[in-house]
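The freezer alarm interrupted the setup, so I double-checked each line after restarting. Inputs confirmed:
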Amino acid sequence: MEWGNAVVQGLLLGGLYALLAAGLSLMFGVMRLVNLAHGALAIVAAYLGLILVQKTGMPPFASIIVVIPLMAALGWLLQSTLLNRALTQQALAPILVTFGLAVIIQNALLEVFTADNKSIQIGDLAGASIQLTPDIAIGVFPLITFVVGVLVIAALQQYLARTTTGRAMRATSDDREAATLMGINHRRINSLATAIALGIVGLAGVFIGMRTQFNPYSGDVFLIFAFEAVIIGGLGSLWGTLAGGMILGISQAVGAQAFPSSGVLLGHLVFLAVLAFRPTGLFPKVVNG
Amino acid sequence: MALLEVDAIDVFYGDFQALYGLSLQVAEGETLAVIGANGAGKSTLLKTIAGLNQPGVGDIRFDGTSLSALAAHRRVALGIALTPEGRRIFPSLTLEENLRVGAHTKRPGPWNLKSVYDAFPLLADRRSRLGTNASGGEQQTAAIGRALMSNPRLLLLDEVSLGLAPVVVEQIYAALPSITAQGTTVLVVEQDVNQAMKVADRVQCLLEGRTVLEGPPSVLSRDQIASAYFGI
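Predicted 3D structure, all chains:
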């Protein structure tokens, strides 16, 4: 029954990965931009949450309400000053720019916060759990993370499907030049997409900070997990990203159950298997633009 | 004063020059057809008016104002809409969503979902079809409807007939009078000379980036057009 427990825990962990991956998926979908600073930015959000909780005594969950708009504003600024310009250059430019950004962020964090592990204390909630069966207990905090992950993906999906701006984002994703001919300012759409993506990263980052210990280098591993979730799920599909996050989470948890010291490895293997046998992911977008 | 004045523009693609000091004027409410063989510069002309290309020399004025500093998306807000060559329907959006995106600028005017569906009843039946699954005729119709949704003063139509069955082309052009009846000025680019002669008030023929013949269809003879078209 401990295997069943591993699957449940992995599923819940998948909610966090999906949250982390949603922003990556959105930015790639709208502007074909691979944001290698994604993980580093999530860690920035975790430190922001930490500062707010430590310096102002704000409850951890309340800090999210401050971190999201801060990160969204940072996203808008980043896109309108730096990334929109990088996108007008050759294909390698945005990758190099975001990679450089990740290095800068990492070193800046190191300078300010040292390499010590930190975490955002959530008190009793960290240990609270609901006993489902005698063998399976669900942690309350992982459950909250999971529910938030699903809600955010559902909300983003609805935003893209139903609103004028969401439609403009999908149109820009399909054909940027044709979107321009509809009067859509694609630079503005890009900035908005990055603002939304980083807002979600802000949310994910604070959850990471509350869930585990982090340091300035933690961004790398979360970048990889986010990428794996997006690729497993299939590019361009948010529900796919959610499923990809869950599959990755379950693989890691089951892997940890089998080989306690190298659980993450199974996640990587599943990712590699998907890449080898279903390179378009398990739930690819139906349309190839 | 003409609604659109193209004033001696040169347009380049890198080292290749597509237009040589090209000028044209379209009066408000007029339908002008620009004809010419492949590579005459017709599509380049429309793209330059829409703002996708920048003229190296010369100016384009719309309602008396120079467009030179205006990005393509801002020209839509002024009332210039291009139905591009190849239709460029958004493949992952339904045809109705394609139309809705066309209304992005929220320019007021006679065209909305209902009036577009009235003008193109075929679209109403296929509204929930994905762009990628629509037939060529459906895509072309949707592309025109999408441009109309911005309630343009000037509608630029690029190669509407390309790759479509003659009967479908007839259907699409049959809707043109209902468009011009709204006072919309139309600049249509066509390889199909007969179709162009039927719908236009005036025809301008391009050859290798220059105007070689211009006039109302009624005064131009077949031989004149043939020699202008092929440059013989």
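Quick read of the result. Residues 2-220 of chain A form one domain.
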